[in-house]
DNA sequence: GGCTGTACGCCAGTTACTTCA
DNA sequence: CATGAAGTAACTGGCGTACAG
């Protein structure tokens, strides 16, 4: 059972556009186990479809969308970025050299592809491959506009089919391989962020469990001390004034009792009305909700 | 229908480069 | 100005899947 949205102190809305799965990660200590498991098991390594709400630039926010739209309006996406544009956007960053990207499996596949070969030649800001020698790997810094468009596209679908990839590459004046790499890196970044969030979440869970364990150990010690003490039985309230419900183990006191035990009318319809609820290890360190024990009435208050 | 080779996409890990404090 | 850290584009190798022969 998921925690309600109003219960979330810090929630991550993880919307997955492709299959419309939605996942929320609650970082509050008061997490129920199912919420924890859903947040952690919902991630599939082969389909890391998380959309993490980042504090700096939330791709899901309206402001971000508006900003991106304005950026989209601001540039002519059908125009190949010129070298001058590159200089303007990225200062003295190096022009895009494609020589070093012709390597490995990818180039084996894409290097011989006709369309993509065209894109290779048409894009890359008119810089020839061998401008910087054969071994250097010059890195292109994508312009803000390009990054914004890629981000917007990623927001819609975090993977691209070949058609989308080609269209986007053409739109941005990049090679399809660059678009593909950008999406791969973007997915990796998203996953990394999510991993960090999950790690933080597990850390909190661990802290809560430690605290709960400490509390229970203390309670056990108190109970043992009381059991060994001969005065324990002397201090016990006579059974005529305190009765315990065998079903829910709650102590019922007469209406006149001024003690802290539950004085409300306590009637059960059937013997199975109450059932034992396991302790929630994901709950906060605060005492779990349960009926008072007989020891609660006699335990010294701290 | 099962097997094999090929193409392709994705991922984790890494490298190389840029930017910034 | 030099430098280290952080960010990120690009590369590499491995794995899974689809498909044709």
UniProtKB/TrEMBL annotation:
Name of the protein this chain belongs to: Homeobox-leucine zipper protein HAT4-like
Origin: domain of life: Eukaryota
Record's compositionally biased regions (Low complexity): 93-103
Keyword annotations from UniProtKB, A to Z: Coiled coil, DNA-binding, Homeobox, Nucleus, Transcription, Transcription regulation
Signal peptide residue numbers: none
Record organism: Populus alba x Populus x berolinensis
Residue ranges, annotated region (Disordered): 84-140, 256-302
InterPro entries: HD, HD-ZIP_Homeobox_LZ_Class_II, HD-ZIP_N, Homeobox_CS, Homeodomain-like_sf, HTH_motif, Leu_zip_homeo
GO molecular function, one term: sequence-specific DNA binding
């Amino acid at each position: 059972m998921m925690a309600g949205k109003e219960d979330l102190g810090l929630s991550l809305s993880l919307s997955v556009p492709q299959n419309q799965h939605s996942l929320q990660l609650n970082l509050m200590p008061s997490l129920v186990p199912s919420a924890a498991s859903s947040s952690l098991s919902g991630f599939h390594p082969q389909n890391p479809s998380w959309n993490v709400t980042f504090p700096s630039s939330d791709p899901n926010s309206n402001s971000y969308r508006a900003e991106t739209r304005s950026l989209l309006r601001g540039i002519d996406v059908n125009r190949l970025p010129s070298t001058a544009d590159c200089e303007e956007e990225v200062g003295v960053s190096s022009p895009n050299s494609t020589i070093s990207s012709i390597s490995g499996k990818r180039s084996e596949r894409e290097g011989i592809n006709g369309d993509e070969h065209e894109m290779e030649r048409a894009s890359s800001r008119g810089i020839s491959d061998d401008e910087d020698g054969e071994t250097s790997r010059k890195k292109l810094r994508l312009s803000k506009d390009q990054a914004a468009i890629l981000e917007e596209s990623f927001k819609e679908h975090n993977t691209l089919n070949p058609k989308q990839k080609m269209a986007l590459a053409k739109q941005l004046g990049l090679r399809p391989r660059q678009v593909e790499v950008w999406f791969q890196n973007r997915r990796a970044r998203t996953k990394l962020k999510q991993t960090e969030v999950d790690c933080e979440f597990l850390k909190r869970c661990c802290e809560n469990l430690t605290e709960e364990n400490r509390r229970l150990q203390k309670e056990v010690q108190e109970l043992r001390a009381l059991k060994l003490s001969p005065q324990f039985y002397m201090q016990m309230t006579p059974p005529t004034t305190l009765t315990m419900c065998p079903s829910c183990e709650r102590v019922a006191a007469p209406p006149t009792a001024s003690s802290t035990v539950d004085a409300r009318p306590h009637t059960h319809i059937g013997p199975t009305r109450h059932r034992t609820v396991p302790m929630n290890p994901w709950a906060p360190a605060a005492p779990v909700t349960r009926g008072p024990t007989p020891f609660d009435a006699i335990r010294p208050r701290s």
